[in-house]
């Protein structure tokens, strides 16, 4: 004998399975999920049908997460080459820009996950690039690591004021900078 706790409404079943009610309803309508129909015309899904859905979901292979995209912006070719090599080894998708204008174009076009940004470049500097990213609602979630060879409390304060997420000097070794990039993603994923 079926008891009341053995079946669920479409919204309840959707919540248990982690889908929205429209998805659950379309599965019921298509016959992918069997449901009982009450005398009042309401659909009820048996616990055994929910169990089948949950087992199918567990049997599916996990989606491979896409590679994170990092845009490295610096006017020194050696810095671009070094970071490209190091980041690719860690399976990041790497793009580069050698000036602020090119960086602005690539940020809008690619919407990278993170930008490693040199502060002092000819033309448009890193401060302006950071301000552009962080004041644009479509871009402001992009992480920005400001990097400079001209370390000073004023430069650090100014770039953090423009919205940079992190500040690092070029005197830091590449391992420290890579660790900062990795931890930036971890911190961002948790928030």
Automatic annotation (TrEMBL):
Positions of post-translational 4-aspartylphosphate modification: 118
PROSITE patterns in the cross-refs: RESPONSE_REGULATORY
Annotated signal peptide: none
Alphabetized InterPro entries for the sequence: Bact_response_regulator, CheY-like_superfamily, HTH_17, Sig_transdc_resp-reg_receiver
Superkingdom classification of source: Bacteria
Keyword Phosphoprotein in annotation: yes
Pfam families named among the record's database cross-references: HTH_17 (PF12728), Response_reg (PF00072)
Biological process, per Gene Ontology: phosphorelay signal transduction system
SMART domains xrefs: REC (SM00448)
Transmembrane feature ranges: none
Keywords noted in UniProt: Phosphoprotein
Domain Response regulatory: 69-185
Statement: the UniProt record of this protein carries the keyword Transferase: no
Name of the molecule in the record: Helix-turn-helix domain-containing protein
Organism: Desulfopila aestuarii DSM 18488
